[in-house]
Specification:
Number of domains: 2
Number of helices: 16
CATH topology of the largest domain: Na+/H+ antiporter like fold
CATH architecture of the largest domain: Up-down Bundle
Order of helices and strands: HHHHHHHHHHHHHHHH
Amino acid sequence: MATTGFTSLAENISLVTNSSSVMTPPQASTVQVALSYLLIAMIAVAMLGVGCGVDYRKVLEHFKKPSGILIGFFSQFLFMPLIAFAMAKIFQMTDSQVIILLIVGSCPGGTTSNIVTYWVDGDIDLSITMTFVSSTLGLGMMPLLLFIYSQGFDENLSVPFQTIGITIASLVVPVFIGMFIRHKFPQKYPIILKVLTVFGIISIIAVASASIAVYSGVFVLTTSQTVCAVLFPLIGMGLGYGFSSLVSCYRPLRLHHFQRRTIAIETGVQNAQLATSIVQLSDFPLRVKGAMLPFPIVYLGAQLGWIVVGLLAFRVYKSKFHRITPGDQSSSAEDDKVREEKLKEGSGCGNPNPAYDEIEPPTYEDITEQRHNEITVL
């Protein structure tokens, strides 16, 4: 039965490909082709920058004790697609709405999550490692998840598997190239990273402007899509933090609170740019793309909105409790001793004084090996 469903999907993709050439005006088609190539370049450059930021030694450190990676993996590739599937069923969405919701729900994390993690004093190394792992595994997980969940809808539901595979591949290869550049040119990679970042920002602005010009006349956004787009990142962040906290009740897998925040961000801040790219690179008719593209755009806006709210709340919370990190130069030796004792007492579930859970080393270079091992055990 699964084989029949896959065959039906493949036939429908072929039908969509043939129909798009009839329904799309020649001038619009030319712009879309140019936009598609620009998108591929933009994605490649962005992920090349991610690769330059990956230190394989830190990745190996997390793989030695992979509780954070595993929890993040299940949060991203189990909970988020399942939530998307449930939303599509609850709101009884149309085929195009279902496809884009499932695509967004199955997307790996992106560079935005790394930046936000830095702002909320999260585990930067864990964030970059999770982005690297999810982007790499996404090559197989995204098509698999979309195939599985599409079986719960009409057999004629068209999923652009080929486009997804090509787009994800354009993510994975540049990441490894970026890692090679960092390893080969350790003194020059920061400059390369800055250049790639500037180029990426310019590309995003160019692609966004071109997309609005091409698709603005056919944009369609329903109330149910808006509700899902606004709630989706919040639910993802909540589940990511909740699931990591639940697992942390088991002491051998316990994660520090700044690591749980990292997992929450990686779960809720999906790569909306990737979802937009998949739609634009696919062979759907122009009117179908117009019905799909607004969702990831609104979702991206909702992400930014919740991020701002979360940052403000975190800053107020941190200011109220006067958090001091172990790397703070102004802290006294007595304060360091007290913090070390509190770290040894434990953190997470059942801690009578959870305020001390916020003692968080920013990077591996800023703490000793002994403190790193203590935090990992906790």
